[in-house]
Amino acid sequence: MTTPITRGKARWMRLFRPRVLFVLAISLAALVMLPTWLKRLPRLDTRTDYQLAWSQLELPAGPAELPPGISSQLEQISGVKSLSLFDQRAAEKIAWTLAKHPWVARVDEVRLAYPAKGIVRVEYRQPVAMVERPRGIYPVASDGVLLPPEDFRRETIAGYPQIRGITTQPAGAPGTVWGDPVVESAARLAQMLATDWNRLGLEAIVPAASADLVSQTRSLGDLEPTQRKVEADGFRGPAVLHEETKLNEETKGRAMSPEFVILTKAGSRIEWGKAPGDDGPGELTAAQKLGRLNRYVAEVGSFGEGYAIDLRHWHEISRRPMTATRPASTRR
Fold it and tell me: Is the CB of residue 85 less than 8 Å from the CB of residue 116?
């Protein structure tokens, strides 16, 4: 008969059996050697197939002007040459870097895969117009965001609608909004007219208040690069004549919804009115005005030379000879 004391001694003595002692010795040795073994293991996060370089991102095709060296630009923005697939925030860092690029409007998805590869879905900004200023020509997207001028070749600039008569400079670097509601409204109008621009023989979009002055100035787009500085130095267009002034609240409200005139290549001008999104109650919509414009060309054949064509009337399109003293917004 066994007592509690003898049963306790028996359990204790089992620990000293050879098999139990061997297992305990192996476990203790493994615990002591574990740090050394871990140091000797290969580090996967340093292997090239786990290191994602910016050139390994699969980006969708973008606008024709999108620079081929976008990978190096992303590296400059991020400040690092590559990211580890073991970095739990790698996809987030890639999305943040892409969003900082001036050509990227929105990042929709970033997927990482092994061996190191990144699959990205982004929406690029689309250039819609060129803003002419004495210091140069600035491309803008439909939301008024400035795009990198150095990405555009001279032969492609002429293919875009021109915006003239702007009195402000960009407020920031490429990738930021111009900062002038007139530019933003003109860009929306340019986007709407882009499909029909060349077919209709249109030349430039101009704020109505500057139309008379702009028609008397030369376009920087018509000059050779070596001539632009000379022309800019002697520029006497709206940028010089319309200096910024302090506006009261009523004038500021009107400035937020400017009216525009469209110059034609034949030498006439179209009194368009407000840009898409700015038109209010009691005004024709932008779609209605575009429909009138196409109907006019279909019926008359061309805009002719030296005419002011007003699309803003509710019941008719008016046409009158242009005069040097009559402002663009005057109606019959």
Answer: yes
User: For residues 215 and 206, what is the distance between their CA atoms, to the nearest angstrom?
Assistant: 9
Three-class DSSP category at 123 = strand
Distances (CA, A) of 121 to 61, 78, 95, 96, 153: 10, 18, 10, 13, 27
User: Which tokens in the block code for residue 65?
Assistant: 């002007």
> Distance between CA 101 and CA 162 in Å, rounded?
24
Find all residues with CB under 8 Å of 27, minimum gap 6, and list them: none
Does 81 reside within a domain? Answer: yes
Of the pLDDT bands very low, low, confident and very high (cuts 50, 70, 90), residue 50 is: confident
Radius of gyration of the chain (CA): 34
Q: Which two tokens stand for residue 144?
A: 């008024």
Question: How many helices (H) and strands (E) are present in the chain, helices listed first?
Answer: 12, 13
**β pairing state of 51-53 and 82-84:** antiparallel
Q: Assess whether 288 and 202 both reside in one domain.
A: yes
Query: What pLDDT is attached to residue 316?
Result: 81
Q: Per the domain annotation, does 250 fall within a domain?
A: yes
Average pLDDT over residues 241-258: 45
State the chain's mean pLDDT as an integer. 79
Q: Are residues 189 and 267 in the same domain?
A: yes
75-126 per-position pLDDT tens digit: 999 999 999 998 899 999 999 999 999 999 999 999 999 889 999 999 999 9
Q: Are residues 106 and 136 in the same domain?
A: no
Task: Write phi, then psi, for 150 (nearest 5 degrees).
Answer: -70, -15
Where do we find the tokens 């800019």?
232
- Point out which residues pair with 259 in neighbouring strands: 274
Range of the domain at 62: 46-124
Residues 289 and 149 in one domain: yes
Higher pLDDT, residue 243 or 71 = 71
| Dihedral of alpha carbons 21, 22, 25, 28, sign | negative
- Confidence label for 44 from pLDDT (cuts 50, 70 and 90): low
Same domain, 154 and 222: yes
In a domain, 11, yes or no: no
Q: How many CA atoms lie within 13 A of 86 on its CB side?
A: 9
